[in-house]
Write a structure and sequence with these properties.
Bound molecules: adenosine-5'-triphosphate
Helix content: 25-40%
Low-confidence stretches: none
Shape: globular
Order of helices and strands: EEEHEHHHEEEHHHHHEEHEE
Number of strands: 11
Structural class: alpha+beta
Distance between the termini: 11 Å
Length: 291
Amino acid sequence: MRRIHIEAHAKVNLGLSVTGARPDGYHDIETLFQTISLSDTVFLEASKAGIGLSCEGIQVPGGPSNLAWQAATLLTRELAAPAMSITLFKRIPVGAGLGGGSADAAAVLMGGRALFDLEASDTKLMSLALEIGSDVPFLLRGGTARGVGRGEILEPVAPLSGFCLLLVTPAFKVRAEDAYARVRIGLTRDASYTKLNSSAIREGELGSLVTAFRNDLEPGVVACYPEVGAVKQALLDAGVQAAVMSGSGPTVIGLVRSSEEATSLLPRLGGHGWQIHIVEPIDSGCRVEGA
Ligand code: ATP
């Protein structure tokens, strides 16, 4: 039976400004999204026994609460796709501000279309993605993008390169709803901050990227979870160029020039029980690998 696998890449928010509360309960944001080399692997195959989901690696709940399951349900309902069996090999820390669940959902949408040769335009997939969550449209497309609205209105930004990120994730989860409930709106009012001059980054000049490293959700999360502030301080003390919480946290990302530099800083971050990943920016979203 045909089986495909998809690399479902995580994202970071290099910067995030909350610009307003919306009547639908969400917030308007302006963010600079970046997909990164850290990924889950999602395996898909047709199933005669209805939608099924199993998980290897980091464990997450199976069943309808799983965003990958919800993506498969949407494909069957909206595009008459056959049922599929999903296996997740999870590496992306869960509830960490890295969009892991959203990436898995994007992978099922993209992979399901390829597996069953579904007639669905990219625009249709993007609209299904938004039904699942605000970050799913970006994770379908990936790369570097400015996101406004709930984060689903995407404006491509020239690919960023010439840097690495140290991801430091403390051993607890933050619910996105809780992070947004504590936000003070408009802390970063200068809306141009995510409109980066990425050519400067390509030339190895990290200065303009440093100016993006701000997150309006961070003060509220730090007030509730002081360890997030400790992680950020540890990264700065270790010598990163800049550090900021990604999305709703608790992962804090540290900006460095190279993976060698990131590796050299590791001894200064040990001993706290934090998960650490060294990642690179990538210029794609989820990728169907074997069809
Ligand atoms: P975001 O940055 O998009 O808010 P996050 O990285 O903070 O997301 P996720 O890892 O996507 O958070 O997980 C958030 C919640 O979603 C968890 O409580 C988890 O139980 C649930 N969830 C549902 N499906 C998945 C999945 N496939 N992988 C991980 N978590 C999932």
